[in-house]
């Protein structure tokens, strides 16, 4: 069975079902209905021509090819201006139309691609294109629908008009300041463009010709970041306005907690950073927004043994934010040996991590607690003084470069912490019609390894797609397979504690196109083209499902997993 796909991308060229060509005096456009045809023995597709600025009687010569073979056409109008055909098979049908006026200027040849799906099953995704700076084109991020069925040829993917916007970031007094700047086109927030303003506040960025929301994060730590709405790329960026002061207290019972780091984000815009005073009080600069989602993160000093607290909710920032640590029983891990196979591990980095349940609150809301305490064993392989809650935690030990271990830390005083040896893996990528030579496996740390900032592990398969290696014992990973040669679609298995002996990678739907820019026939070479998950959140929303770079012809071809297998 083949796999089919249809893509609806507004303003990436002609609309779905409408294509055209234009000469000096004659314009020819091809449209078709339905715009999302489904293959079948009775699936009729109607081709409609529209011709302007042509003189005399018009002659129409139509051609439709499927996989290079001609498709039978029938007249839908007696003058041959409209034709029909039966889309028995799914896939791409290439349409060509030559219009011949009886006198006057000739008309250019018109082309269209009719993409026929196998059924109406689809997955919502996003097409993200970032041209190189030399191409003078905009970043775009468009919704697409991937249907199971046959491959989809997008043809010309025409990027919208853009402009090289220039301006100055100014503080509330009108003085230019250095800053990190993000531009979000309204209605297409995924096409964010970022740049830096110089010491004088000057910036340049290639932007779509439409209003943008701009987030400015000043380099100076005493100037509040701010969102500036409705910036026109051909206009002047508004000055920053005077900020609001946001205050609060971090405490445990009646005791204030000093030197705790405070970070607040209001509707996606961070405030300034600060640390609490000795009595637990703090103040940051930001901008109040009514009914906004607010994230508050509190990181106490590591020597307190208290967890980092975090909450995201609708929080009123115009009144003091109360951060209340519940009573948490602590124990000192000083002198606890860290071992592998009974042998001490002296002078090794160890990170104590874990989730800490408590009744701690931020602004009256239940807060999630995360512990992360980095330390190093002494010359005898024992932990120094480390305060930690009396709950089951994990210790991530770096035994050597590339050699990590995840050991359990008991809720009581442990006799020792084990750093188990690396675990051998032997796995194979399958699912294609041939051995998947060069298939790649990425293991993305989760849980304790992620909390300890452990790196991702990357493996490349041999000629048969087979991989052997070793990974930290006790770890949890997202298992991500991909095929650089595009023979199959990528595969992901989430939150795995082991690597299976084999994986069946899904069949692929091939999405292809040729990137150009409005007003230019030159191909966009070296553009980054990605397909992203539309429904995902967090890092998965920005992590590509597949990606490629346009070649010397501006062309790309991406192997997207069959929606039926996702």
How many angstroms separate the termini? 16 Å
Let me know the number of strands: 49
Percent strand equals: over 45%
**What is the gyration radius calculated from CA atoms?**
30 Å
Which structural class should the secondary elements be placed in? mainly beta
Envelope shape: globular
Note the total helix count: 2
Mean pLDDT: 91
Main pleated sheet: 9 strands, antiparallel
In percent, how helical is the residue content?
under 10%
* Low-pLDDT ranges: 1-18
Notes on the protein architecture:
- With 566 residues, the chain is mainly beta.
- Strands 21, 22, 23, 25, 26, 31, 34, 36 and 37 form a 9-stranded antiparallel beta sheet that branches. Strands 19, 20, 24, 27, 32 and 33 form a 6-stranded mixed beta sheet that branches.
- Strand 1 (18-22) and strand 2 (27-33) form a beta hairpin.
- The radius of gyration is 30 Å and the shape is globular.
- Mean pLDDT is 91; it is low at 1-18.
